Amino acid sequence: MRKLLALASLFVATIFVSTTETFAQTTVHYVKQGETFWTIAKHYNVPLLELQRINQKQTDVLFVGETLRIPQPISQADKDLLARLVHAEAKGEPFAGKVAVATVVLNRVDHPNFPNTIRQVIYDRSGGYYAFTPVQNGEINEPADREAYRAVEEAIAFRGLGSGSLYFYNPKTAKSEWIRSRQVTVIIGNHVFAK
Question: Please, what is the average pLDDT of the chain?
Answer without folding.
Answer: 85
